[in-house]
Write a structure and sequence with these properties.
Blueprint: H1 2-28, E1 37-47, E2 50-54, E3 68-72, E4 90-100, E5 104-107, E6 112-113, H2 134-149, E7 156-159, E8 165-169, H3 174-183, E9 186-190, E10 193-194
Parallel strand pairs: 3-5, 8-9
Antiparallel strand pairs: 1-2, 1-4, 1-10, 2-3, 4-5, 4-6, 7-8
Length: 199
């Protein structure tokens, strides 16, 4: 009986060893799911030692920044000048490709001059001459505060109709959209467009 327990113990140890080895081999070439890559077209602004992709050059300024997101891995001295009289270094509209970490876009490809500049997606269609209702403004503030409390920056908001708020966020990922739409009547639009994963 002692011998049998010894065989079982060594067999179990051998089995666990083989299992661990095979998992190690299977996992050796994999670092988990590949990071999602995103793209957008935007001019870049350098200010305060940081670089930002701007969705509105009308907002560019030393104090206000430019209403956009931080971009890492770019040397603005290597980009074509955007001209203008903003008093800060900013580029022409560039096509940017990179990964999003929740705070910044880290480039995985060198920026290229954009062939088209479509601007940011609109969170909802509005009549540009209509005035927002007071309730809409309060709902927008509530939605913005709720998203920011979860670490999600809101780039733009609008009252879509009497009950729905539209928001433009850097990335409209499934988790963010599911959470906010379960609490508010919101239409969420992401500025960064996911790229299809390739081989």
């Amino acid at each position: 009986m002692v011998r049998l327990l010894g065989v079982r113990t060594s067999s179990a140890a051998l089995g666990f060893g083989l299992l661990a080895a095979s998992l190690g081999v299977l996992g050796a070439g994999s670092s988990g799911p590949a990071a999602i890559r995103y793209e957008l077209e935007a001019p870049l602004l350098a200010t305060g030692g940081r670089v930002f992709a701007c969705f509105s050059d009308a907002l560019m300024g030393p104090a206000a920044g430019c209403g956009g997101i931080e971009v890492k891995g770019v040397d603005v001295s290597q980009l074509p000048d955007g001209g203008g009289d903003h008093g800060l270094p900013w580029s022409q509209t560039m096509r940017l490709v990179g990964t999003w970490d929740g705070q910044a876009l880290t480039l995985t490809e060198a920026p290229q001059i954009a062939q088209t500049a479509s601007g940011p997606p609109q969170p909802c269609q509005q009549d540009r001459y209509s005035q927002p209702e007071p309730d809409s403004i309060q709902r927008q503030i509530e939605v913005i505060d709720a998203l920011r409390s979860r670490g999600v920056e809101v780039l733009m908001s609008a009252g879509c109709d009497r009950t729905t708020v539209g928001v433009l966020v850097p990335v409209g990922d499934d988790a963010t959209v599911a959470w906010i739409t379960s609490h508010y009547h919101v239409k969420v639009v992401g500025w960064l467009r996911p790229l299809p994963s390739g081989p």
